[in-house]
Structure formats: structure tokens, C-alpha cells
Design brief:
α7 packs antiparallel against α8. It is extended and about 95 Å long. It has 17 helices and 6 strands. It has 425 residues and is mainly α. The chain is 60% helix and 4% strand.
């Protein structure tokens, strides 16, 4: 079935006059998934900072070009009007893409080898979808496309989160390409993905929209992407989230977003240190709850962040990094580690002062006097140093919480008694 794709809030002549088969796009997503095996040993080069800078410079030059032509001419094109009125949206998007995909995050995303270049798999999906729709995006079709891809190959948790910035970047690429045709300014478009590993990119009776329509579509889509609740979209499309919600205790779906995200982050860490993928680890945790003894052991969080985590780690063959092992060893006995560090550092500072007193020729009485005068300031310095190290190395951990935003269920009702003194009746 062919669905007409109207252009929202655009002038009639700029609206797309063609149709696109969204059913075909879903079939195309499934075919792409068959050819999306990630590179096993990527070079981890991050091209995004340089690309964002290139896009920013080009789009700024287009804005200047339209400003100059608008002064010289009485009438300007629709593309010029939209660019001049909405350039701040483009600037905000450029900044947001850079902030949402830091280098460490991009490095962990699965990569594909396309035309001897490594690109993040989630970027290729976003770019192809954006090109197919001429930058006219709608969330329901994005979700259908994502789910169709995952019916064959599952996306990682990080890839689900990266969808929003990658769609923004894809829209900017399509916008810049269309503007280069309108202004004839020099621009090097992103590498073509129309022929991805032998999968032909066929528009199926939908020719390319004109460049002015693509410009308007792009700006409307950037506005739409900025107003979406991507948390809800993530949890609607994340396969791991759907698995965790089958928690036998029924507690997981009632938890707040931060707690659920902490559980998912732990699954990501386990997947990095084992041969199991994220969905398989979630299934293993779920299977452990089936045989749990007691209510606490039937909650999936018991095996993700609780005392049962070692059992899950052994089951998936998790091998933690040396840094993680050291952190766990130190946090296993936190009081001893904290007080022991202060005592050791205090002793080291006191010994340094004693060695100095002995070196300058102090007698026994003077050395003991130096120790008495040094021990208090040394302990104060040791406490400050240890506290600083703890803040730098130990991330804050929020206790798991339930979400009572929509009201407190009857089983959790409590009476709060506040003692008070009244001066008079």
C-alpha cells in the first residue's frame, strides 16, 4: 500500500508530490540487516568531529550567501526564506550532535566496512532512511523501520540511544547536499550508500523530490526530532528492555527510568566482557530468576546489580577489566579501604617529616616533637586527599527506586506521623 507523505507546515508547491511504500522500506530494512555484520576489529577512528565541522562551515557559508542575495533581490526562494528564518535550529543541531556522541561512545558502536571505510552501523541505517524519505521524517515510520531491522539483526543498547543524533546528522547531510545544488557552492557530500554490499537502493516509483522541498523537509524534521521523547522511543524499540520487563517479580516495569537505565548499563558492561550479546545476557538473567529462592531472588535486579551478580557473571563467562577488578576489590570492604588509606597516607607524611628532622641533625627530643606537631596536619591532609580520590574514582550510585509519578499504589500506602508541639489548642 502506498502512503502519501505530506509536508508539514510547508507551502503547497514545496510539498512532495510522490509516494513511498513504507512496507517496502521495512522489507528493505530486513534485507539490510542480513548484510550488517559488524567489523570484528575496527580501527575506532571517529570521523564525526571533522564532519560536523565541515557541515557547520558549509551551512554557514550558505546562510551568508542567502543573506547577500536577499539584499540584492526583491524576492527570494522558499529555500532561502527557510534557511534565514531557521538557521538557529541548524546551529543548535550541530552542537547537539557533537555533545550526544562523545568519542568514547562512538568508539563502542558497531562499525560496517562500506567502500573501504568504517561507518557506524546505526548511522548507515539513519542515512538510508533519511535519503529514502528526502528528509521528511515521521516517528511511526522510524520505529517501524527500526523494528523491521531488528527482526533480523538486533541493535545494541548504545545503537538505540544513538538513533536520535544519527538521524539529526543524516538530515544535516541531506540538507547540505540539497543546498549545494541550489547555490552551486562547493560541497563534498557524504559517501553514497545507495549500493550497500550488493543491496540495490530502489525508490520504487518515487523519484527524488526537488531541492527546495528537501530543504524545507529537513528543517521541519530537525524541529520534529528536537521535540520527541527519545526515552519512550528507546524503551519501545529496545529488545533488551522488552526482555527485562518480563521480570517475574513484576517490579522492573514499576521502577523509575534511572534505575532501569542502570540495569541496562550493567548488561552493556557484561556484553563487553563476554561472548554473549546483550539480549542473551538479559535472557540468562531472566532464567536465573525462574529458580530464585525468595522474593528478592525472583527480581531480575538481584542478578544485575545485587548479590546475585556473581552468579550471572559466571554463567555468561564475564571477564572484567583490571580497572574494574581493582574497583570491586576496593569497594568490597569500603570502610577498611577508606580508613586504611587515610592511615597509610598519614604514616607516610609523618615519616617524611621525621626523615627531614633527622637529616637536618635533630636530636631524639626534636624528632619526637616534630612527630607530635606533624601528626594532626598530616592526618587532615590525608583525609582531604583520600576524599578527593574517592570522588574522582568512585561514581555515585543511586539506590534503586520505584516510579510513583502517577500515584502511589494501594500496596505501598503508608502513614507519615510528624511529632509537633502546639502552643495553644
Amino acid at each position: 500500500m502506498l502512503n502519501t507523505v505530506p509536508l508539514i507546515n510547508a507551502e503547497p508547491e514545496a510539498a512532495s508530490q510522490h509516494t513511498v511504500s513504507h512496507n517496502w522500506l521495512e522489507e528493505f530494512a530486513a534485507r539490510l540487516a542480513l548484510h550488517s555484520e559488524p567489523v570484528k576489529h575496527p580501527d575506532n577512528y571517529n570521523p564525526l568531529p571533522a564532519r560536523i565541522k565541515t557541515l557547520g562551515i558549509f551551512l554557514a557559508s550558505v546562510h551568508n550567501y542567502f543573506e547577500e542575495t536577499s539584499r540584492a533581490e526583491t524576492t527570494v526562494s522558499n529555500a532561502a526564506e527557510w534557511m534565514l528564518d531557521n538557521f538557529y535550529v541548524i546551529e543548535q543541531t550541530l552542537r547537539q550532535v557533537g555533545e550526544d556522541i562523545p568519542p568514547d561512545f562512538y568508539r563502542r558502536l558497531p562499525k560496517l566496512n562500506i567502500n573501504d571505510k568504517e561507518l557506524a552501523r546505526i548511522y548507515t541505517l539513519a542515512f538510508i532512511f533519511t535519503k529514502a524519505h528526502d528528509s521528511h521524517l515521521e516517528m511511526k515510520y522510524i520505529q517501524n523501520f527500526t523494528e523491521a531491522f531488528q527482526s533480523v539483526t538486533l541493535l545494541q543498547i548504545g545503537e538505540n540511544w544513538a538513533l536520535a543524533p544519527m538521524f539529526r546528522l543524516s538530515v544535516l547531510e541531506t540538507l547540505a547536499d540539497a543546498l549545494s545544488h541550489i547555490t552551486q557552492l562547493d560541497f563534498h557530500p557524504a559517501a553514497s550508500l545507495d549500493q550497500w554490499v550488493g543491496v540495490p537502493f530502489d525508490r520504487r516509483s518515487r523519484p527524488r523530490s526537488d531541492d527546495e522541498a528537501i530543504v524545507i523537509n529537513s528543517i521541519v524534521s530537525l524541529r520534529m526530532l528536537a521535540t520527541q521523547n527519545w526515552r519512550d522511543f528507546f524503551e519501545a524499540t529496545s529488545v533488551v528492555e522488552h526482555i527485562l520487563r518480563v521480570d517475574p517479580s513484576g517490579v522492573y516495569p514499576q521502577m523509575d527510568f534511572e534505575t532501569r537505565n542502570r540495569y541496562r548499563n550493567n548488561i552493556e558492561e557484561l556484553a563487553l566482557g563476554s561472548q554473549f550479546d546483550e539480549a542473551a545476557i538479559a535472557h540468562e538473567a531472566l532464567s536465573l530468576t525462574q529458580n530464585g529462592n525468595g522474593a528478592h531472588a525472583r527480581h531480575i535486579g538481584y542478578y544485575l546489580i545485587g548479590h546475585g551478580s556473581s552468579e550471572l557473571e559466571a554463567r555468561v563467562g564475564y571477564r572484567s577489566s583490571y580497572q574494574s577488578r581493582l574497583r570491586r576489590w576496593l569497594t568490597r570492604v569500603p570502610i577498611r579501604t577508606y580508613l586504611g588509606s587515610i592511615i597509610i597516607l598519614t604514616i607516610m607524611l609523618c615519616l617524611a617529616s621525621l626523615l627531614y628532622a633527622s637529616h637536618v641533625g635533630g636530636n631524639l627530643l626534636q624528632i619526637f616533637l616534630t612527630l607530635a606537631l606533624t601528626i594532626l596536619p598530616a592526618s587532615a591532609v590525608a583525609v582531604d586527599v583520600v576524599n578527593w580520590l574517592v570522588v574522582q574514582t568512585v561514581p555515585p550510585r543511586v539506590l534503586p527506586r520505584l516510579d510513583f509519578q502517577d500515584g502511589i499504589p494501594a500496596e505501598f500506602n503508608v502513614m507519615v506521623v510528624i511529632p509537633s508541639l502546639l502552643k495553644n489548642e
